[in-house]
């Protein structure tokens, strides 16, 4: 019995990193992990670099530059900060080498280190009702630029013009592509999840998640159903449960109410039955 109980409770606690609970605080630990994973899983910078080599950002030719290719994309370093009431500010630091034939007729090589910044606003999907991030105000900030071209005003003007045409169209869509992966993490919030063979649990959002200074708070109203579809009513919770104080900075926390756990145990009652014999 204890083994079954431990497995169930551990499953609930573990699953809430991607599946919702009753009251969840998403700290920067989980948010950063999900964004970093999305960037790595999508390989978006490498894909966009390859696409730029085929046709150029936006499919438009760059004046004074032909046969453009993008290579040697650096592994991105991602920095995130919560923006209260808005969402998350994101900065992606990376670099690359842009090559091609310049207006002078010679081979050109530009080594660029840059920051991509954007605000990811937390909204609600109108169709599904689930939370979603949408990027706003994407900007490209040049950190350093090196080239094999001679240094003069004409070349400097050409470089400035070329980079401002190439980089936004190449880099900013990467932010949106990563958010597609991140937003998929919210997709299963409205799905019924099986609890063994005994029933299901559905975690419904009570409101749009709120962004605070050090976390995103998500409130859920759990629906516990038996295998035949009968809903186990949750008792009145009374006073809203509170998170413990002095938790680790930036950490995520899950708070399961006693009423929710009572309903869960009621669902699992048949599997928890045990006969105890008095042994002398």
From TrEMBL:
PANTHER family: BPI FOLD-CONTAINING FAMILY B MEMBER 4-RELATED, BPI FOLD-CONTAINING FAMILY B MEMBER 6. Residues 33-180 form the Lipid-binding serum glycoprotein N-terminal domain. It comes from the Eukaryota. One of its GO terms (molecular function) is lipid binding. The keyword Signal applies. This is Lipid-binding serum glycoprotein N-terminal domain-containing protein. Belongs to the BPI/LBP/Plunc superfamily. BPI/LBP family. Residues 1-18 form the signal peptide. Pfam families: LBP_BPI_CETP. Keywords: Signal. CDD domains: BPI1 (cd00025). The keyword Acetylation does not apply. It comes from Jaculus jaculus (Lesser Egyptian jerboa).
């Amino acid at each position: 019995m204890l083994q079954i109980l431990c497995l169930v409770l551990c499953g609930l606690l573990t699953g809430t990193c991607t599946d919702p609970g009753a009251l969840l605080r998403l700290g920067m630990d989980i948010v950063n992990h999900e964004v970093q994973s999305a960037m790595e899983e999508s390989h978006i910078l490498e894909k966009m670099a390859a696409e730029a080599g085929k046709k150029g950002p936006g499919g438009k030719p760059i004046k004074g530059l032909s046969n453009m290719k993008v290579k040697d994309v650096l592994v991105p370093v991602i920095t995130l900060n919560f923006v209260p009431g808005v969402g998350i500010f994101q900065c992606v630091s990376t670099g690359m080498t842009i090559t091609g034939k310049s207006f002078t007729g010679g081979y050109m090589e530009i080594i660029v280190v840059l920051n991509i910044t954007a605000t990811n606003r937390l909204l609600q999907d109108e169709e599904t009702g689930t939370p979603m991030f949408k990027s706003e105000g994407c900007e490209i900030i040049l950190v350093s630029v090196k080239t094999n071209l001679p240094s003069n005003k004409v070349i400097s003007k050409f470089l400035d013009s070329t980079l401002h045409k190439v980089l936004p169209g190449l880099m900013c869509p990467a932010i949106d592509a990563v958010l597609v992966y991140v937003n998929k993490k919210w997709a299963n919030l409205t799905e019924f999840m099986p609890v063994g063979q005994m029933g299901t649990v559905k975690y419904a959002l009570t409101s749009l998640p709120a962004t605070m200074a050090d976390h995103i708070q998500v409130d859920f109203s759990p629906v516990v159903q038996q295998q035949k579809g009968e809903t186990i009513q949750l008792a009145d919770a009374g006073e809203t449960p509170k998170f413990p104080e002095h938790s680790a900075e930036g950490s995520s926390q899950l708070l399961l109410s006693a009423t929710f756990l009572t309903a869960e145990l009621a669902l699992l009652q048949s599997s928890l039955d045990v006969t105890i014999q008095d042994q002398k």
